[in-house]
Amino acid sequence: MKIHHTLCFLNNLNLTRCQSYLCTISNFGILCSIMAYTNVSSRLLNIKVSDAYTYSCNSLFVEFSSCTWFHSFYLSSFLSHFYNWLSVNHSSVMVIVLCIFCLFSFLSNMFCTFTSSAAQGFDRYLTVRSNGGLNQMRTGISDMVAVAHIMNATLVIPQLDKRSFWKDSSVFSDVFDEFHFIESLKGDIRIVSELPKNLEGVPRARKHFTSWSGVGYYEEMTRLWSDYQVIHVAKSDSRLANNDLPLDIQRLRCRAMYHALRFSPPIENLGKRLVDRLRSHGGRYIALHLRYEKDMLSFTGCAYGLTDAESEELRILRENTNYWKVKKINSTEQRVGGFCPLTPKEVGIFLHALGYPPSTPIYIAAGEIYGGNTHLSELSSRYPNLIFKESLATPEELKDFANHASQTAALDYIICVESDVFVPSYSGNMARAVEGHRRFLGHRKTINPDRKGLVGIFYMLETGELEEGRELSNMVQRMHKNRQGAPRKRHGSLPGIKGRARFRTEEPFYENPYPECICGSKSKLDIT
Predict the structure, then answer these.
(1) Does residue 444 contact residue 414 with C-beta atoms inside 8 Å?
(2) What is the DSSP code string of 466-496?
(3) What does the domain layout of the chain look like in residue ranges?
């Protein structure tokens, strides 16, 4: 029996939050299956029916967790079995039970929000200067939400980075929906648009919080409140550990990243229109994050396939960019170690070996490709149906985004998250953020190239030891059988690395927020 009409009131509520109450009570699984079956999630959230189950479940998982007292394993386990019995034996009774529990959970959440507001620090403020590109800032801001919660502080809307390579003048409200950000997190922390006027001139504690720190570190930092009302955080990225944090903190990070940091309405609206246009052209499409741009090649020191003049230009750029600490880089060692982006030519060979036909529509999520058509033609000769945002959108639509790298990157982000297949040529901040978001939305297919392993294959092709064909395809497909976004646990640090250096080698939390923010069964997690 469908429950569409019974749950029609969801149209007038925050669907994600209301779903979360139901999903928590039913141990997440049963209600999500019903929602997917009845198409409610698909229709109201504008997502595929195939993703409705997991998206509902994961949204509920993180949304309801702010009220931690309600998370009783025994209660949820009992309710799960109870719902199972009802769904088989008394479907009409089940509808009534679902409605009762939805009402109860709604009221309980209101109680949680009311009682938590008293604990928020109304006289302590955290100001933040975000650093890096769009996705480095997004993950950093999400961490700062959790830090403000731990330190019982009011978070002032963060300043965006205007000094990085892109020199983007965008402010927070240009890129993100500021009102939604404040409102969606008000049950967790207090957020204000600006520091109160009477505190603008007071002395501030200026801190570079230690990277990958745990809750204990930030609890210790609360001693600063005895001398200061305002703490200024100079850098926001990687300020929290990837692992070994309390469950409520990890889920708060997910709420901030996947729900609260929604892009501004102009970006969201245009992004959705571009996705619709892509779908109308050919239905399914690959989103390729082709990180073959001047800044990335210079930063990584990767010169394979470039002319001597191009290599020298990148070297000079690296020398003159003060905040890039490493100046002398061995390009060959970088490539052999798998630390270089795939070239356009290598991407073409890779996709062909995976079995994608030349007619496949491929959206190129990137800035200006270094070397222009000289290098890009090595991909377009194999896959002529390359699509750029400039060909999807009109000049009028893109006019307001010109010279704002963060805003155009947000458009690429939306298109990548919504793609049928996502392929990053390099594991940078955007690639990791998109992969994590796609996992959260239902482990959507993300093919992560084994760049270190592929270097050997490309070398054999160059030397004639291997030719393109069935043997190459078999090698590449075997190598990537378990690198396509299937559910798995987050990788820990590399063996043999000790001290704080080990944190740098861990898989980032936002690249794979399992198990804290993703529903799943242990039987599905054999792939590592």
Answers:
(1) no
(2) S-TTHHHHHHHHHHTTT-SS---PPP-PPTT
(3) 8-117, 125-262, 266-524
Q: Are 159 and 172 in contact (CB under 8 A)?
A: yes
Average pLDDT over residues 476-501: 92
Residue 3 amino acid letter: I
Amino acid at position 8, single letter: C
DSSP 313-362: HHHHHHHH-TT-------HHHHHHTT-SPPPHHHHHHHHHHHT--TT--E
pTM of the predicted structure, to 2 decimals: 0.82
Answer with the residue of higher pLDDT: 340 or 25: 340
Per-residue model confidence as pLDDT tens digits over 81-132: 444 444 445 555 555 655 565 555 555 555 444 444 434 567 999 999 999 9
Characterise 167 by phi-psi region: left (phi > 0), alpha (psi -120 to 50), beta (else): left
The two beta strands, 125-128 and 154-156, are parallel
Whole-Å CA distances, 317 to 208, 321, 501: 27, 6, 28
Closest CA to 108 of 155, 72, 59, 150: 72
Q: Looking at this protein, which amino acid is placed at residue 463? A: T
372 dihedral zone (left: phi>0; alpha: psi -120 to 50; beta): left
Instruction: Please check whether residue 495 is in contact with residue 229, taking contact to mean a CB–CB distance below 8 angstroms.
Output: no
Residues whose CB is less than 8 angstroms from the CB of residue 169 and which lie 6 or more positions away in sequence, other chains included: 162, 403, 404
Shortest CA distance to 121 belongs to which of 149, 153, 144, 145? 153
Give the angle 423-428-429 at the CA atoms, nearest 5°: 110
- Is-contact 286 356, C-beta < 8 A? yes
Instruction: Give how far the C-alpha of residue 405 lies from the chain's centroid of Cα atoms, to the nearest Å.
Output: 18
The first and second tokens of residue 528, run together, are 């590592």
Alpha-carbon distance 231 to 229, whole Å? 7
Q: Say what the alpha-carbon torsion angle 9, 414, 349, 476 is, to the nearest 10 degrees.
A: -50
**Spelled out in words, what is the top-level CATH class assigned to the domain 266-524?**
alpha beta
**Which residue has 């155009």 as its token pair?**
408
CA–CA gap between residue 409 and residue 390 (Å, rounded): 13
Of all helices (H) and strands (E), which one includes residue 141? helix 134-150
